[in-house]
Specification:
seven-stranded parallel β-sheet; two-stranded antiparallel sheet; 9 strands; alpha/beta; single chain; globular
Length: about 230
């Protein structure tokens, strides 16, 4: 990302996603702040709790308490990104008179939560509530169906419970272009936007360079039609 910061000017850089409980929070805060400064405020930090216990064992982290530790890490990250001097006392973090220099351009850097997995795209209620309480945005892997509508409603309800505006929580959904027609793509994009998607993770899955270019063209036509 430091390299990409130097060779781009407009695009946002997004991690998708960093498994936060495997890492030292203060170090993540420092590294993210540096990238945000280098990009002039174009970083979105995608974070998740992780789902693979082997990864946690290898990195010397606890898998069992990762959700609770993750929530405390979110608090600590935002404190480092917004305060000149940080003092914090929690279950996993004890910080006294610490600071980052320089602070990021965005104060705080947007935190988007990765939820679900390819094998189990629908997250649990506990995870949906965490998104509503703490996330700036989230990466949804589920399909736009009735279960998805219910899951989004749970996120919004959790946000209202803590005094947040659900409209402030952005959502990304997956759009697979493949060989779909322009009308099929139009219908899918409209359906996802009606559900509240603010952006898309677009996958083209073409088997040739020409097919990839054609899929890109069709997607561009669809997106332009919504502008």
């Amino acid at each position: 990302m430091a390299y990409l910061a130097a060779v781009t000017k407009r695009i946002r850089l997004v991690t998708g996603v960093l498994v936060l409980p495997q890492r030292q929070t203060a170090l993540v805060a420092k590294q993210a702040a540096e990238i945000d400064v280098l990009t002039g405020g174009r970083l979105t930090l995608g974070v998740g709790v992780g789902h693979n216990p082997i990864e946690f064992d290898v990195m010397g982290a606890s898998f069992r308490d990762r959700g609770r530790r993750f929530e405390e890490q979110i608090e600590v990250l935002r404190a480092f990104w917004t305060q000149n001097i940080v003092n914090y006392s929690g279950r996993w973090h004890t910080i006294q008179d610490a600071s980052l220099a320089p602070l990021p351009v965005q104060r705080p850097i947007p935190l988007w939560f990765g939820v679900g997995s390819g094998a189990a795209p629908m997250p649990s209620d506990a995870i949906l509530h965490r998104v509503g309480r703490l996330a700036d945005g989230w990466f949804a892997l589920f399909k736009p169906d009735a279960a998805a509508i219910e899951a989004i409603a749970k996120v919004h309800a959790a946000a209202r419970e803590v005094g947040r505006n659900p409209d402030d929580i952005k959502m990304e959904m997956n759009l697979l272009v493949e060989a779909k027609s322009r009308q099929q793509l139009m219908d899918e994009v409209k359906e996802m936007r009606d559900m509240g998607a603010s952006q898309f993770n677009v996958r083209f899955a073409a088997d040739s360079d020409a097919g990839q270019i054609e899929a890109l063209r069709r997607f561009r036509e669809v997106i332009d039609a919504f502008d």
